[in-house]
Write a structure and sequence with these properties.
Blueprint: H1 8-28, H2 33-40, H3 44-52, H4 59-69, H5 74-88, E1 91-92, E2 95-96, H6 107-113
Antiparallel strand pairs: 1-2
Length: 120
């Protein structure tokens, strides 16, 4: 019987997916980390740490990266996977147990409102 238990490695893998997507879209758009950081309103060192996987992305970071790189929802979706995996790996009674995920947010809704979705 399958269980809904996840390890902290799952969260690391999801963060690395976001980092890979960030680097891929930045490279595709021909931007340096400095230019991307400026467009996002973040410090270059923070962008570098997220892109290298040393720091996990925040929801706001993912939103600003999505807008700056016009990735068609790819970056925000990678963030959502990271956030869902992180939530599932919260320790409960000494074990990592699944918690219910947040409702899905549509990319078009996110971009139309001009602000990150409420919640996460």
């Amino acid at each position: 019987m399958a269980t809904d238990h996840y390890t902290a490695d799952d969260a690391d893998a999801a963060a690395n997916v976001f980092a890979g997507e960030l680097k891929r879209w930045r490279t595709l758009r021909g931007l340096s980390r400095t230019t991307l950081a400026r467009r996002m309103g973040y410090d270059r060192s923070y962008v570098s740490k997220v892109e290298s996987g040393a720091k996990p992305p925040s929801r706001d970071f993912a939103f600003h990266a999505e807008k700056a790189l016009h990735s068609g929802g790819a970056l925000y979706n990678a963030y959502r996977e990271h956030a869902a995996t992180t939530d599932r790996t919260r320790p409960v009674d000494g074990q990592f147990a699944r918690v219910s995920p947040q409702p899905a947010v549509q990319y078009a809704d996110m971009m139309a409102g001009g602000a990150p979705p409420a919640g996460r």
